[in-house]
């Protein structure tokens, strides 16, 4: 065994791949454990750049990255923009409210027009599940999914895994409880896929009305009991109640939801002694999470945000080296 | 594959370089060592230890990964991106004399990248270059200040430096490429 492989496997025991197999990042589905380890290991190196006096490396000089967001986002879009700028890429962000989309242009036409200006990568968020997959079939550029409908949000799951690994040193064998609106959550889907691939035990907890059909196919243990989910958990992850996606009544009132599922210090006592509390944001205090917990000593919520930049730099770097010619296997 | 340096010769070369560092800089004031990953890092640590034994002063030592500064990144359409590893420079390099350490000096492109990377950490007073082996064939105007061994080679040969910390043995060998 060479020193290089020794150095790169000391965190999880899972060896890192030497490359990503696809030239797009459409979801966690399709990523194998060694590719996830490669992204997380690369993110470790990227994180150090954020601590330098000059937080910039010349790696993506001359590359153009378009951030095309069809849904409101502050955290994810800002995080991608900072990641792109730290790698010296030329970036431009398009908010759909001010674009031709409002004039009736279709998604594919919008992207084909953007492609005519030869960007190298397109980071996209779209309210429809599968939109980035559609684009990856019609585009020359590499597509990075920054959230599609209720489907996947791969960079969020990667930054969550990175944060967990920094605190616990590993992912395998950990009990992770994910509590909240499971039905509308792309974060749940990506996290469940990633964490189970890496050998963690994942519990999904929420009201029965907010449980997607076929949730057990994600490889997690579904439960409606917060106490059961939190019991002995190493990681508790809260998900936002997504009022904007709810076209119906899923629970009687926000106060009742908080009373039954809201994460309080009282409920957390069942968790492991050094539990960490995570939330992908934006938080609804007093709905899925109590302020005591959000601002408490176990909370790593703001670390998740800073780690997001390092993880997105890793993804941009690893995909930038991929070329259309190098495509392997099915897209 | 002829061995051109064994453990003894390597250790003598590093001791000689340590004495040259002390002589040229008149001591170790404001001096720091930065090794280029992979094998420059253990070499820098060994030099720090030797300098400490000779002079009694601790020399701050860091590790530099130059991958993100390479001039050949993104030029190979096919093939994996080189692995990026952590840069660890846990001290301010402003106004320091930085001794940059690498195993082999060849085209000079690694050193060019390392100089760019170092400048992003601050403004050192001076940067001096230490290499264990200088094998010639420079493509850039770069020259080492301290050389363990000058080794004339042909372009078809490759020079392998193996170190105890990384490879389990101390030696330098020349290999003929097919």
Helix- and strand-based class of chain A? alpha/beta
Can you count the beta strands of chain B? Answer: 8
Distance between the termini of chain B: 12 Å
Number of discrete helical segments of chain B: 4
Oligomer: heterodimer
N- to C-terminal distance of chain A: 32 Å
Please give a structural write-up.
The complex is a heterodimer of chains A (331) and B (178). With 331 residues, chain A is an alpha/beta fold. Chain A has helices at 3-8, 33-49, 75-86, 107-115, 131-138, 154-168, 186-197, 226-230, 254-261, 265-268, 291-294, 301-320, and strands at 64-69, 90-95, 121-126, 142-148, 175-179, 201-205, 221-223, 235-238, 276-278. Chain A is 36% helix and 14% strand. Chain A has a 5-stranded parallel sheet with strand order 7-6-5-8-9. Chain A is globular and about 55 Å long. Chain B has helices at 7-25, 40-55, 109-119, 164-167; strands at 3-5, 31-36, 61-64, 97-105, 126-134, 146-150, 157-162, 171-176. In chain B, β4, α3 (109-119) and β5 form a beta-alpha-beta unit. In chain B, α1 (7-25) packs across α2. The model of chain B has no long low-confidence stretch (mean pLDDT 94). The interface between A and B is medium-sized, with 33 and 26 residues.
Q: What's the SSE blueprint?
A:
The complex is a heterodimer of chains A (331) and B (178).
Chain A: H1 3-8, H2 33-49, E1 64-69, H3 75-86, E2 90-95, H4 107-115, E3 121-126, H5 131-138, E4 142-148, H6 154-168, E5 175-179, H7 186-197, E6 201-205, E7 221-223, H8 226-230, E8 235-238, H9 254-261, H10 265-268, E9 276-278, H11 291-294, H12 301-320
Parallel strand pairs in A: 1-2, 1-3, 3-4, 5-6, 5-8, 6-7, 8-9
Helix pairs in contact in A: 2-6, 2-12, 3-12, 4-5, 6-7, 6-12
Chain B: E1 3-5, H1 7-25, E2 31-36, H2 40-55, E3 61-64, E4 97-105, H3 109-119, E5 126-134, E6 146-150, E7 157-162, H4 164-167, E8 171-176
Parallel strand pairs in B: 2-3, 2-4, 4-5, 5-6
Antiparallel strand pairs in B: 1-8, 7-8
Helix pairs in contact in B: 1-2
